[in-house]
Request: fold
Amino acid sequence: MNAIEGPGNVTSKGGEELSPAPGSLFADLHLHTLFSDGTFTPEELAARGSACGLAAMSLTDHDTVEGCARMAAACQTLGIEFVIGTELTAEFSDKEVHLLGYFLDPNNPKLLAEIKKFQAVRKSRIHEMVRRLNALSVPLRAESVFALANCRSPGRPHVARALVQEGLCPSMEAAFERFLKKGRPAWVPKFKISALDAIALIHQAGGLAVMAHPGINHCDEIIPSLAAQGMDGLECFHTKHTAKMSKHYLNTAAHFNLLVTGGSDCHGYSKGQPLIGGVKLPGIYWQKLKAARQSQAVSLSVKVEAAS
Ligand code: AMP
Ligand code: ZN
Ligand code: FE
Ligand code: FE
Reply:
């Protein structure tokens, strides 16, 4: 079977249908809420997923798993399968890479301790961005950003929204263009965990580690190394991937024996219209991900038994 032949239809940027098969089950495994830089509550997101006919969803807020309990409850009510997730910003060989962690234990002490550090770094980064804006005579206050963000994982989109709200920029896009994009005067580099440490962190929390949107980060050359170091999967389907890119990453995943995932990366209204429903991962890949989780859990318990 060609790697692209799943049992369901996949749409991607450009709207091309890669493999139509009505009636299949679909998942969206890359979503954000207002627990990071999205605009929907978990309940609103679950309701949107239900309206799109999703059978499974994951919440992958940046540097937090805080919204997952509410999302799980909302999904259960709606008959949607839910998997706990998060998205970590990492680096490898000077390349930025986003790693999605799935099936994490939300109470894992090391995961929670690391997340706390990432969140502290995010807060000081906001202060630094505001300092730079003030030095440019843009009178934004950090308190306005934190009040608007109202979460433990504030980021650049919150700064952009605060600039718009305070009448200091006409639009979020303008805020990024003028001030916040890499290389712009208020851009502050972000601390990034090493990708290998991120994979280890996800694994020790009982999760699977998946490279998010490789097509955005242009990091194809590091996929072989990360696969060799235990990375479990590749996000082949993503809003910003064209059909050609999805095919390419499906072939890459098959070559390196990586799991296949996909999601819309919906941030609610933070990036224009909500993206949920635009990318649907065929159920077969979701089933394979769950099977991998099962066998990982079995091998972990064997290791624990052997050690005790
Ligand atoms: P941060 O993690 O704080 O660096 O912020 C990254 C977030 O900003 C991601 O969700 C990006 O998609 C979002 N972002 C980056 N560029 C833009 C842009 N031009 N307009 C809106 N959101 C953006
Ligand atoms: Zn985001
Ligand atoms: Fe990302
Ligand atoms: Fe994301």
Q: What stands out?
A: Residues 1-22 have pLDDT under 50 and may be disordered. The radius of gyration is 19 Å. DSSP finds eleven helices and nine strands in the chain. The first helix runs from residue 42 to 51.
